Amino acid sequence: MKRQRKEQPDVVVAGAGFAGTVIARELAEAGKHVLLLEKREHIGGNMYDEKNADGILIHRYGPHIFHTNDAAVYEYVRRFGTWMPYYHQVRGKIGGKEVPIPFNFQAMEQLFPAEKVSRLQQKLRFLFRERKRVSVMELLECSEKEIAELGQFVYDFVFAGYTAKQWGVPVDQVDRSVINRVPVVLGYENGYFADVYQLMPQEGYTSIFETMLRHPRIQCCLGTDAQTRITLQENGTIWLDGTVFHGVFVYTGMPDELLHYRYGTLPYRSLDLQFETLQLESAQSVGVVNYPNSEAFTRITEFKKLTGQKKSGITTILREYPTAFARQEGQEAYYPIENPENRARYERYRTALATWNQLYLCGRLAEYRYYNMDGVVARALQVSQEILERKSLSNDSRTVCLLT
Ligand code: FAD
Ligand code: UDP
After folding, report:
1. Which of 143, 154, 312, 313 has the most other CB atoms within 10 Å of its CB?
2. By C-alpha distance, which of 33, 36, 32 is closest to 14?
3. Percent of the chain having pLDDT more than 70?
């Protein structure tokens, strides 16, 4: 058989979400040859968007709004397409009314008598001084009786039902960091996020990813599970297509899969996403309406309101039904379930995976962290830098292997 020279890539990246794509791009720009393997048939990870059969741009894996306080991340993503300012508003169905979420002074006015509202506002201003946001827990644990009662109200009617649906356990069993993502606002500000930069990609997220991956040193293979090409050998080496691989392997998938569930499965939460196109100009008042106290779904998203797409007479909505995550075809791992036990199991995987010093874990799945997009971009930029500082990945390190 004829002997054929085949160069190995400098870097293999598993996963084309923000984690994998930023790293692929950064390393390619620094002169490295990158092989990007994505097990789905498309790029973009959970940010992937596409036009549905009705011509409406939807987010296949749930609604994504880009928000950050990190100017470097903002500047970075702006390099790859046009973004438009977008001020995300959410309402929640409470007591037969539709009130702003995060719960704010306007919500109080909608739900409580005027006299009580003015007393509560005065007390809040006095107790929390200059602060614009507090956590529901701070209200709940306040020594002032009426403020603690307000906290209890918000806890019961904004958080308890939604959280039980979302996580499948009572709210008091959910890590506080999760519910603290949504504050109580001490004022009339009614945006869902408080970040300085809040954006949506004008042509959609997929277009941003296409631009990022359009680089002569990036080769992208879709429909390819990295485990079919990469093997972690017990002796600490990594093999690519049956040959020892000397480059770097970046993995953005679930870490337990890499070690064949040696320490048991890492739990994640999933969603059953139900899309529906309605013959209506508009389905609801704002982009997202939450249902903390009724319905089996948590929220309804109306995509036209997020994307700014103009399409008259029809609109597509999405209902999110949270579900347990089982490792089966068609189910997605959307949320790591943060608690000390799961974190300890994750740490066992991370420690064991440190055996392979060419391996880097990055992203929401691989690091088992409830990252937002901006956090993943920032982390991926940092990991890229660490990889570039490795001695063994100097410019002349590309290995040549001989295949027969
Ligand atoms: P992912 O986007 O999950 O990408 C990982 C990729 O790796 C996937 O494409 C997967 O197919 C691939 N992969 C996994 N294993 C393998 C393998 N073995 N071989 C090859 N490929 C593999 N963040 C925000 O900032 N704003 C929001 O509004 C927002 N909304 C969200 C709504 C929902 C419903 C969810 C679930 C998340 C939301 N997020 C939001 C968070 C955001 O989705 C994550 O921060 C982001 O997806 C993380 O990017 P990632 O690259 O780490 O992971
Ligand atoms: N949450 C809630 N009620 C709401 C909105 C959020 O109880 O109306 C809680 C819920 O536990 C949720 C968490 O706050 O999982 C974080 O909300 P976020 O909107 O950040 O969730 P994501 O968009 O990531 O699903």
Report:
1. 154
2. 36
3. 96
b/e string for 12-39 if b means 16 or more Cβ within 10 A?
Answer: bbbbbbbbbbbbbbbbbeeebbbbbbbb
Q: Which atom of ligand 1 is nearest to the CA of 335?
A: 36
AA letter at 43:
I
Residue 166 Cβ < 6 Å to ligand 2: yes
* Ordered DSSP codes for 103-154: --HHHHHHHS-HHHHHHHHHHHHHHHTT-SEE-HHHHHT-SSHHHHHHHHHH
What is the whole-number distance in angstroms between the Cα of residue 49 and the centre of ligand 1? 12
Residue closest by Cα to atom 48 of ligand 1? 364
How far is the centre of ligand 2, averaged over its atoms, from the C-alpha of 152 (Å)?
Answer: 17
The CB of 301 under 6 Å from ligand 1? The reply is no
pLDDT greater than 70 at residue 397 = no
Cβ burial of 343 (10 Å; 0-12, 13-18, 19+) is middle
Q: Which of 89, 121, 110 is nearest to 157 (CA)?
A: 110
Instruction: Copy the structure tokens of residue 270.
Output: 């999933």
Nearest CA to ligand 1 atom 33: 62
Q: Give the pLDDT confidence score for residue 6 in this predicted structure.
A: 63
Helix (H) or strand (E) holding 164: helix 161-167
**Spatial separation of the C-alpha atoms in residues 378 and 214, rounded to whole Å:** 21
266 lines ligand 1 (CB under 6 A): no
β-pair partners for 243: 240
What is the edge-to-edge ordering of all strands in the sheet holding 34-37? Answer: 218-221, 34-37, 11-14, 248-251, 359-361
- pLDDT of 391 reads 77
At 226, list the tokens. Answer: 């990295």
Rg (CA), the chain: 24
Do residues 225 and 37 touch, judged by C-beta distance below 8 A?
Answer: yes
Tell me, using a 6 A CB cutoff, whether residue 289 lines ligand 2.
Answer: no
Q: What is the pLDDT of residue 85?
A: 97
CA of 369 to the centre of ligand 1 (A): 11
> Residue 381 in contact with residue 22, Cβ under 8 Å?
yes
Ligand 2 touching residue 178 (CB < 6 A): yes
- Output the CA 302–ligand 1 centroid distance in Å: 21
Which residue's structure tokens are 């020279």?
Answer: 5
